[in-house]
Design brief:
about 85% helix; single chain; about 180 residues; Four Helix Bundle (Hemerythrin (Met), subunit A)
Length: about 180
């Protein structure tokens, strides 16, 4: 299906963005990030509007989003454009959630993963912050105070999201 092909294309853009950041090619990184964002909107629109949803698409789309965001945060953290503590927080959240799901599978108590509303806001804040940082680096402007506001939003929403997921997971594991 076309949405899945677009999603796979977005996954293939991840190393291009990481290379661009590592090479100091911030305009390229910003442009490819914008293309990846547009592709996310297009594949979602096509899947919903034309009833092209699939089980593999339901797995690939969040995987593509996470691969993109985690890679950008790590690359920007190494570059020194964002605080390393924020990179650790964002990456650790995803590792904890994936680890919890894997443990539940290993213990034959699989947990249904559906995104919480706070996680959707968290993803939006992470995307907005990454876009702002890449745009500032690309076009040479000072993003303040918007970068601090978005960084605070990412921090709070990431902590809230992981907390809610882990509370739900502990409840599931103790009752299943």
């Amino acid at each position: 299906m076309l949405p899945n092909i677009i999603t796979l294309g977005r996954i293939l853009l991840v190393p291009v963005i990481v290379w661009a950041i590592a090479s100091g090619e911030m305009t390229v990184a910003f442009a490819v990030f914008a293309i990846a964002g547009a592709s996310d909107a297009v594949d979602g629109f096509l899947a919903k509007r034309f009833h092209m949803t699939s089980d593999i698409g339901a797995l690939l789309d969040p995987l593509a989003d996470k691969a993109l965001l985690v890679s950008i945060y790590v690359a920007l953290g190494i570059w020194g454009a964002i605080p390393r503590w924020l990179v650790i927080l964002v990456v650790s959240r995803d590792i904890m959630i994936v680890g919890a799901v894997m443990v539940s599978w290993l213990l034959a108590k699989p947990v249904a993963m559906k995104p919480l509303m706070v996680s959707k806001f968290n993803t939006a804040a992470q995307v907005a912050f990454a876009a702002l940082v890449l745009a500032a680096l690309s076009f040479g402007f000072d993003p303040g105070p918007f970068d601090l506001v978005l960084m605070a939003a990412v921090t709070v929403l990431t902590l809230l999201s992981v907390g809610l997921y882990l509370v739900g997971w502990v409840r599931h594991m103790s009752t299943a």
